[in-house]
Amino acid sequence: MTDQRPVAIVGAGLVGSGWALVFARAGYHVAVYDPSPDIRAGVVPWARQSLAELTHAGLVDAPDEIVARITLHDTLQAALAGAFYVQESVYETVAAKTEVSLAIDALMDADAVVGSSSSGIPASKFTADCANRERFLIAHPVNPPHLVPVVELVPAPWTSPAAVDLVADLMKTVKQVPVRLTREIDGFVLNRLQGVLLNEAWALYEDGIASLADIDATIAYGLGLRWSFMGPFETIDLNAPGGIEDYATRLRGLYAGMVRTPPPGPWPDAVVAKATAERRAALPVDALAERRAWRDGVLGRLLAFKKSNCLAD
Ligand SMILES: NC(=O)c1ccc[n+]([C@@H]2O[C@H](COP(=O)([O-])OP(=O)(O)OC[C@H]3O[C@@H](n4cnc5c(N)ncnc54)[C@H](O)[C@@H]3O)[C@@H](O)[C@H]2O)c1
Fold first, then answer.
1. Do residues 33 and 133 share a domain?
2. pLDDT the model gives residue 153
3. Cα of 143 to ligand 1 centre, how many Å?
4. pLDDT band with cut points at 50, 70 and 90 for residue 310
5. Which helix (H) or strand (E) holds 31?
6. Could you give the C-alpha distances from 93 to 80, 118, 203, 220, 302, in angstroms and in order?
7. Inside any domain, residue 290
8. Which of 26, 65, 160, 183 could form a disulfide with 134 if both were Cys (CB 3.0 to 4.6 A apart)?
9. Using one digit for the tens of pLDDT, what is the confidence trace for 71-106?
10. Cβ < 6 Å from ligand 1: which residues?
11. Residue 35 C-alpha to ligand 1 middle, in angstroms?
12. Which CATH number covers residue 219?
């Protein structure tokens, strides 16, 4: 930990509360602001419950000390006071992001940097009029950020390299894994990759090539096992005797023939309805929250496994 000043969390819903845990777990004092009293009231009980699971998985000790570092504030000004880094996690609309960015801009410390959790709206769409716009960028996490460490750093054209460096260093300090994009692109890297897979999964399902459950199983019991610790390039480097070049020689023709024409459009309503009926038959809507908690427990144990096998920090 290099900077002793607090981190501010602006917006404490699903993602913002996860971020609070990320920074508090690493030793930072975390000042949380959300305009909703109900949301604010839920942050600490949620953090306590999540920390109990992390403690059980051997991933943290001293959970009470971690919770004690989180303070809740009912004004933006109070949360930003003295903060060297602001993680913004408000609603994913240009209007909401613009309004909150301008408000942060007016109150932030002279050298503070602001990372937005935006899943897809680039910073250039909502920080153009900020006086400190060179210190705003995207720091896009995966939900829940305290269990899935990757963070995409995406600069706007006017973001200073120093601001990106600061956030990259901070993310490493708090044990997240920063991935740097050189410029803005729709969907960033993570959702572009996920988008290709999802579009293909919907198309295979719509064409009746395989059932929804079998398509899911292909990832859960196939591709996903390797993907939990290595990416697609390292995967193919190991999947041909001579490495990636050999793989390309052998199989590039196969992949070249797989391009869909025309490119995928929006997922059709009727196909979404059919998939929804299947999923709800497998998991009723009122069981989703319980299944999310199960997912988080599995993620925690997977992280603990990776850590104990030197596959993660
Ligand atoms: N949920 C995900 O899977 C996920 C993953 C990665 C990134 N994100 C991104 O994170 C951001 C937040 O998403 P979420 O899922 O946590 O949404 P959410 O609805 O759970 O939380 C949004 C919170 O923002 C608060 N808020 C609204 N206006 C505010 C303001 N002016 N100042 C402070 N707080 C304000 C709301 O009260 C609410 O608690 C979005 O940009 C989203 O795209 C979400």
1. yes
2. 98
3. 11
4. confident
5. strand 30-33
6. 22, 9, 28, 32, 33
7. no
8. 160
9. 999 999 999 999 999 999 999 999 999 999 999 999
10. 10-16, 33-36, 39, 89-92, 96, 100, 117-119, 140-141, 143
11. 12
12. 1.10.1040.10
Number of domains in the chain: 2
- Dihedrals φ, ψ of 141, to 5°? -90, 180
Read off the CATH number of the domain in which 159 is found: 3.40.50.720
Residue type, 277: A
pTM (2 d.p.): 0.93
- Distance, CA 219 to ligand 1 centroid (Å)? 28
Q: Starting at the edge strand that comes first in sequence, how are the strands of the sheet with 136-141 ordered? A: 70-73, 30-33, 7-10, 85-88, 113-116, 136-141, 150-155, 177-180
- Which tokens is 158 given? 């006017």
By residue range, what is the domain housing residue 114?
Answer: 7-180
Is residue 139 in some structural domain?
Answer: yes
282 vs 311: which has the higher pLDDT: 282
Q: Does 194 lie in the same domain as 176?
A: no
User: Domain end: 160, 180, 200, which one?
Assistant: 180
Structural domain ending residue among the three candidates 153, 180, 207: 180
Q: Determine which residue's CA is closest to atom 34 belonging to ligand 1.
A: 11
Give the integer Cα–Cα distance in Å for 289 and 295: 10
Average pLDDT over the chain reads: 95
